[in-house]
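Tutorial, part two.
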Amino acid sequence: MQPTLPLRRVALLCGLALLGAAPALAQDAYPSKPITIVVGYPPGGSTDLTARTVATELGNKLGVPVVIENVGGAGGAIGAQKVASSAPDGYTLLVGASNEIAINKLVTKKVKYDIKDFTAIGLIASQPLVLVASTGTGVKTLAEFTQKVSKNPGKFSYGSSGVGTSLHLAGEMVKEQGKLFMTHIPYRGVAPLTNDLVGNNLEYGVFVLSSGLPHIKSGKVIALGTTEAKRSAVTPDIPALAETPQYKNVDIGTWFALMAPANLPKPVFDKLKKALGDSLQSPDFKKKMEASGSTVAAPTVNIDQFLATEVAKYKKIVEFAKIEE
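Running the prediction step on this input gives:
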């Protein structure tokens, strides 16, 4: 009976080898089923639009359906938490904005996830924000805005879509650079903010460019300047705030990135990274994103470096303005 022992050992070793190869085989086969992209907001917003546009491209590149799951609430944090807690297998991804990926954790202790709980696949696109005035202020330019607010400290207010959003941080950056004293009015979303600006119940506000553009074009609000370092190619007629020396350091926008749970296997990461890079260079994708007011990111952007820089910028603003929720 002695000869059977080596055979058992051989069988055992073969079994172990097959088990060890299983994860590698699974990764090589990726993707073999539909991929879900979670969006932390209801359908129809800029993040949702970005996710649906990139999902179509990724589906074409990867050869499987890519479906959207809207998980709204807590400024995008509920959806982001869902992805951070998911299995790192490449089948549950997040298209997130600057709010839920980088800002929320800085302003509220309710957010339990951190940026380290994600694997960043890549930057998708960005949009500037725009500082606007209601028609009732009589203000037409940034210079008039600065002069009027400076001479009346504490008299005027500006609105954003909520505490700790990129819109709020942009407003505080304008206040810091301009040495202005204005009251921040947080709204529960863009719709009520728009209503009060258009109805002249609020003097100033900050919009994502795509949200503000229809009201700017119709003359219902006055654009004072966009918030990124350079003018947006989408609105070359609207000056960047940074063109004015007093506001030269204003450089903030909103951006969208493709994220996966932490510890994503490298073969899966590589496939997603390539599919995203190819998508960003698609003429059809660029056309759709630019039509929505976004500038498509270069595939060469170092996403980890980008995120580190953005978090440092937001942290400085949050600390200056003492923003806490």
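The first strand starts at residue 35 and ends at 39. In part three we will examine how such features are distributed along the chain.
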